[in-house]
Here is the input.
Amino acid sequence: MNKITIFFITSLIAIFLGWGIGSYITYNNTIEQVGKIPASPIITLAQYDKKNHAVLLSILNSGTIPLTVISKSFVFKPGKDSKQKSYEMANIPANIVLPPLAVTIVALDLKKGSNPLEAGDIVMSTIHYTHSLSKDVYTVSHKFEYTGKEKESK
Amino acid sequence: MMNFERVAWWIFWITFAVLIAVMFYGFTLIIFKATPSEIAFVLGLVSFFILGNRLLFGYGWIANILDSILGMEDLEQKRPVIEKKVQEKKITSEEEIKKLSVSALILLLLKDLSYYQYAFYGIYLLLVIFTLAFNFNLFGDLLIGRYIKGIFWGASVVVFFVWGLSQLSHVLYSEFLEKIKIKGGAAV
Here is the structure.
């Protein structure tokens, strides 16, 4: 090795070192900034639990801030085969915390005494939630159409 | 004349104090605005700088003195300085130092630093292993892994400088030996 070789090798290493340090600091600052933004919950799956007469919603909180569900409401629209012949509406207050980066299953209890769902019935559910950064109430709506295929859950 | 000097001194001291105050203000702002990962980076930099202090200044000193010797006609001119440095290190006795050539004395200094170099690189290697383990989530997804990475990047800067200076001093030493060969001076 001579001095010129050392010059080139050290310059190359210095470039990569600076690249690494810069990207490390930028990445961590970005993560910190993004972590402060609350995400909207995503309903990944809806199932009908026949035994408990409830619709189970799997809600993914994709952000890093916990969200609190303050109430659940639904509108029931009967299908062709249904014996329930009218629109049904309900609003149920709740206090469910959705932990960050996790899926939480929320049960939407249908009215007791009403007939079990038939294929073609539609349950339009709305989740009202808040987070710690503002006093506003946000909503997520999900249309669940019961196909008759039963998925038993615990 | 006396008065003018006094006024000039006062102006100097006031400017100096203001400059220091502004610098402290700037530093405190930097520290307060720093993110945890930046503080981890600085911690790694400072701790490895303390660890590699002897190597940095040792190789820096050797590279510097070899560079000045290579520019001189008389290769023995810097002998007293090098002798003093070897005496400070307490490697051999004074009579032995007088007998040795300049190249042998520099070789002694390089050899003295190589032990510290192994310890330094060993600790850095441990840090690299831990960083890789955290990078591939071998210990699970822990928050501390993020800061270990910052310490790694801070340490890498110091390791880069130590490596570069050691390479430079070795290259200059081989150039020095070449020059002795050309001069044909066995005494040097």
